Amino acid sequence: MAICVSNAKPFIPSLPSSSSPFPLHTQKLNSWRKPTLCRSVKESPFPHPNLISRRRSLSLCLTTSFLLSLGGSHGSLEANAAILEAEDDEELLQKVKMDKKKRVERQGLISSSGKETAHLQDLVYKLNRIGEAIDKNDLPAASGVLGQDLKTDWVKNVNSALDKFSISPQEKAEVDAFSSSLASLISSVEKKDFEASRVAFVASATAFEKWTTLTGLARELKGI
């Protein structure tokens, strides 16, 4: 059905012929009409059923594709996570095996080094006696245990044992710290410097204790 709307004639005032300077133009304006405007309107305001069906099918396809893509992405993420977790587990397993191997090797070294272990046990006893003497401000007694320099036999034996059991850089670093502190301790005791002797003794004992923990010898030595 077509609805046609005819525009109304525009209002143009007619001027007297005597007062109009443009009588010919005025007549043309009066005789002018706008063309009729027509607008088509469909019989039904609702879309065709086939169009609805096509739209519904398209929407369903898009939704399905979106859900499948989400599912695929989720599955891919889970697969990647599983791969990373497996790699982490493999690295952890290798680390555990390596640590176990090192412990077995270290235990074998300790078991086969009875003489060196005895030297270290003697060091523990000496440190306990030196500590007691310094607590009592009895530096002559501490000097009697230490000796006058690093050339004494017991110091040489201890250094040899420390070198034999030290494998990792951390262990070697603690050996260096102990040797330096022991040298300061002997020097401070000989100078009868009570405060410096206390500081050097604590540094020596701390470095040695850390070293025994790193090497596993803390379980083998008594008095630590």
Structure description:
The chain is mainly alpha-helical and 224 residues long. It is built from seven helices and two strands. Strands 1-2 form a two-stranded antiparallel sheet. Helix 3 packs across helix 5 (153-165). The longest helix is centred in the middle third of the chain and has 63 residues, at 49-111.
- Whole-number mean pLDDT: 76
Look at the helices and sheets and give the structural class: mainly alpha
Q: What would the principal axes of the Cα set say about the shape?
A: elongated
CATH structural fold name of the domain at 112-215: Four Helix Bundle (Hemerythrin (Met), subunit A)
Helical coverage, percent range: over 70%
Q: Record the strand order, biggest sheet.
A: 1-2
Label this structure with key terms:
Four Helix Bundle (Hemerythrin (Met), subunit A); 2 strands; 224 residues; disordered N terminus; mainly alpha
How are the elements arranged and paired?
Layout: E1 2-5, H1 23-31, E2 37-40, H2 49-111, H3 114-135, H4 139-146, H5 153-165, H6 169-190, H7 194-215
Antiparallel strand pairs: 1-2
Helix pairs in contact: 3-4, 3-5, 3-7, 6-7
Quick gist of this model?
This protein is mainly α and 224 residues long. 71% of the residues lie in helices and 4% in strands. The protein is built from 7 helices and 2 strands.
